[in-house]
UniProtKB/TrEMBL annotation:
Its cofactor is Fe cation. Keywords: 2Fe-2S, Iron, Iron-sulfur, Metal-binding, NAD, Oxidoreductase. This is (2Fe-2S)-binding protein. Coiled coil: none annotated. It comes from Hypericibacter adhaerens. CDD domains: RHO_alpha_C, Rieske_RO_Alpha_N.
């Protein structure tokens, strides 16, 4: 017999958001363990107010992956893009350092660049203000006061350089943060630095990138990636066919989650079926890591499946409460690109992704569509969903915990 549920029942953890949405009392259930484990209330996926709090307290202050260094391989190369709606320019300077600048002129705010290219300096198309590759102000033609005196001279020139966004690199990845946060990039990466070192991600390059515009909250795909419960069902004819021997969790000390899954020969970047032959293991990998696959996340929105032959990178970028952008990149060692069989073998990896990743993408969309129902409720989590609750608690810690840093006690 079907259960008669209340329409928009506020007392039953539905998606109707409370007025005091950031009050700790609404998240007491998230703090419970054992048989009472729960994930976030459903309004955390649909509320624009909750998303604005996430943006301010998580994304603006956290290190966010935006791209690979290879998008600007040579001095003078630039690449324009946006993240969280902020237009930016990624540029490699004459000193070979990669920097990220706000893509806005310091005069009247016009965008300096579009697309990608190579240049010796940036010149605003509006009034021809110019800037060096390191962001320093170069000049502004005819920028004088009514008496003909220059408005910018040696006394104030330093004030007019481009606004630089704090950035850092690791493993060939470029990270940014918009506001000062509690951790350096290395502290944020935690165990990534040594655990993934022998895979030499900095020596890889992106061979294929697929972007999905998602009608779903950013957390839906992230939660799905760390949810072990769905694998035998959503991936019953694909990823679930891999038989693992054990999973070894690496202790976390930053915003990372690292687990190494041991299995027999092969790579989980492929499927264990005939016709899915792939590249040999990279020779430099630590011997005890050649038979297995890393599954890692870096909060808030980076995930990566790291095999002995390459990596599959996921980026879940929020657009609004109900929209996100999922970018999926296939990375391989640069040395593989020169192989005669690269095009043929790489197709097997893409074929795998077009099955497994699409299964994950589609279920995330389906989940989000369902939780918008006025009858939607959240149930308790099972033992295979403990990582989902871990993420929920981390989000509550960032968004709901009082600014004083006091711990929220479960009611």
């Amino acid at each position: 017999m079907a259960t008669r549920a209340g329409y928009e029942d506020r007392a039953d953890l539905g998606n109707v958001e409370p007025e005091d949405i950031l009050s700790p009392r609404h998240y007491a259930a998230v703090r419970r363990g054992g048989r009472l484990m729960r994930s976030l209330p459903l309004w955390c996926y649909t509320s624009e107010r909750f998303w604005e709090a996430e943006k301010e307290r998580i994304f603006l202050r956290s290190w966010n992956l935006i791209e690979r260094e290879e998008i600007v391989p040579k001095a003078g190369d630039y690449h324009s893009m946006s993240f969280l709606g902020v237009p930016m320019i990624v540029v490699r300077g004459k000193d070979e350092k990669v920097r990220v600048f706000a893509n806005t002129c310091r005069h009247r705010g016009a965008m300096l660049a579009t697309g990608s290219g190579n240049c010796k300096a940036f010149r605003c198309p509006y009034h021809f203000w110019s800037y060096g590759l390191d962001g320093r102000f170069i000049g502004a033609p005819n920028y004088n006061d009514p008496e003909g005196r220059p408005l910018i001279d040696g006394t104030n020139k330093e004030e007019f350089g481009l606004a630089e966004i704090e950035s850092g690199t690791w493993g060939g990845f470029i990270f940014i943060r918009f506001k000062e946060g509690p951790q350096t990039l290395e502290q944020h990466l935690g165990a990534f630095v040594e655990s993934l070192a022998s895979h030499k991600l900095e020596d890889m390059a992106c061979a294929r990138k697929v972007v999905y515009e998602m009608d779903a909250n950013w957390k839906c795909f992230v939660e799905n990636y760390i949810d072990a419960y769905h694998i035998p069902y959503v991936h019953k004819d694909s990823l679930a066919q891999w038989k693992s021997k054990e999973a070894v969790l690496v202790p976390s000390r930053g915003q990372e989650y690292v687990v190494f899954v041991r299995h027999d020969e092969g790579s989980q970047l492929l499927l264990p079926f005939p016709g899915y032959d792939g590249f040999p293991p990279m020779p430099q990998i630590d011997p005890d890591r050649t038979k297995g696959t890393y599954f890692v996340t870096l909060r808030p929105g980076m995930m990566m499946t790291l095999g002995n032959d390459g990596a599959l990178l996921f980026q879940s970028e929020p657009i609004s409460a109900k929209k996100s952008r999922l970018t999926v990149s296939s990375l391989f060692p640069k040395s593989y690109f020169g192989r005669e069989d690269f095009e043929r073998l790489s197709q097997n990896y893409y074929r795998r992704n077009d099955i497994v990743v699409v299964e994950d993408k589609d279920i995330a969309l389906r989940q989000f569509a369902g939780i918008q129902s006025p009858y939607a409720r959240i149930a308790r989590l099972c033992s295979q969903e403990t990582d989902v609750q871990g993420l929920a608690n981390w989000i509550v810690d960032q968004v709901v915990t009082p600014e004083t840093g006091e711990t929220i006690a479960a009611e």
